[in-house]
């Protein structure tokens, strides 16, 4: 085991990076635990690309401390790069090389690679193995970039929009590959514009805006509560909401949003539903409709940044 294996896979403290007058990173702090999947979310220009490129060793922060697998990604690049996988975009792959040749060449650079032919078949690249990169479709290029990132069995892999442009079947195959990487103890850091992808795959989510991590936690932790969580029901107008509040947890917000339409803000779980329906039964209220709504990761993102996440 590597001597630093007990520490976090990524540990960033107070990172700053400016491009002229533009401050891309402004005191960013981020910790990625080993063997986990961390999704990095942020609007365009938030600093997420600079953060990931700094972790990969392609950008040097102006200030702060950054350790990846216990190493400095710039000063210790020669020791670090064989241990990490990076999802290259089109600029990192020679356009004339054939897909299969590129994958087999990359595999030979590592001591214990994944079988490149099996990986190619799994990601649906088999039929295009002899096709030059420039002639691959966008989805095929994306799948090849994903295969190149993981073929060396890295300890830590950075995936940049791993399922962008993929059809549903290929997207599910990519998800299963990420899950298997985690099961094998590989740490995965991925950027994505798909909220369902982050909720489905990530153990932790880091939301970056204006060069800082403004929220960090599991999807469940980030989605707990919130103004839109809870349930709604409809009944006769003017119900005695004070008596309803008395049977609900302290601080639960109950409002009549329109005549006969009611919103109960809280964790939309079985207990809240049971409390509201029991109150209705005791008070002779027959609700026309009861709906529950969980605070989603997209709700959290919009609440925190005020911006939509777009490719």
From TrEMBL:
Keyword Protein transport tagged: no
InterPro entries in the cross-refs: AAA+_ATPase (IPR003593), ABC_transporter-like_ATP-bd (IPR003439), ABC_transporter-like_CS (IPR017871), ABC_transporter_ATP-binding (IPR050763), P-loop_NTPase (IPR027417)
One Gene Ontology MF term: ATP binding
PROSITE patterns tied to this protein: ABC_TRANSPORTER_1, ABC_TRANSPORTER_2
Domain ABC transporter: 10-235
Keywords: Antibiotic resistance, ATP-binding, Nucleotide-binding, Transport
A Pfam short name: ABC_tran
Main location: membrane
Record's protein name: ABC transporter ATP-binding protein
Organism, scientific name: Streptomyces sodiiphilus
């Amino acid at each position: 085991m590597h001597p630093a294996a007990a520490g976090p896979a990524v540990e960033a403290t107070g990172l700053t990076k400016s491009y002229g007058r533009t401050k891309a990173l402004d005191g960013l702090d981020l910790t990625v635990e080993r063997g986990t999947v961390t999704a990095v979310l942020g609007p365009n220009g938030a600093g997420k690309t600079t953060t990931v490129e700094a972790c990969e060793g392609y950008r040097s922060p102006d200030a702060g401390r950054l350790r990846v697998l216990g190493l400095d990604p710039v000063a210790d690049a020669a020791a670090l790069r064989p241990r990490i996988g990076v999802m290259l975009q089109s600029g990192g792959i020679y356009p004339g090389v054939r897909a299969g040749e590129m994958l087999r060449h990359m595999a030979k650079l590592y001591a214990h690679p994944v079988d490149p032919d099996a990986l190619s078949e799994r990601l649906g690249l088999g039929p295009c193995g002899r096709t030059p990169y420039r002639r691959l479709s966008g989805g095929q290029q994306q799948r090849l970039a994903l295969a190149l990132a993981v073929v060396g069995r890295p300890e830590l892999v950075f995936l940049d929009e791993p399922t962008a442009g993929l059809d549903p079947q290929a997207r599910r195959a990519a998800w299963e590959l990420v899950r298997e990487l985690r099961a094998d103890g590989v740490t995965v850091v991925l950027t994505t514009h798909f909220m369902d992808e982050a909720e489905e795959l990530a153990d932790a989510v880091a939301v970056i805006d204006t060069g800082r991590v403004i929220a960090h936690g599991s999807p469940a932790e980030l989605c707990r509560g919130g103004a839109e969580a809870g349930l709604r029901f409809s009944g006769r107008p003017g119900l005695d909401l004070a008596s309803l509040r008395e049977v609900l947890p302290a601080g639960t917000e109950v409002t009549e949003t329109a005549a006969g339409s009611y919103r109960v803000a809280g964790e939309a779980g079985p207990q809240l539903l049971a409390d509201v329906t029991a109150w209705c039964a005791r008070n002779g209220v027959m609700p026309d409709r009861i709906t529950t709504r969980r605070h989603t990761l997209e709700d959290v993102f919009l609440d925190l940044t005020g911006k939509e996440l777009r490719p």
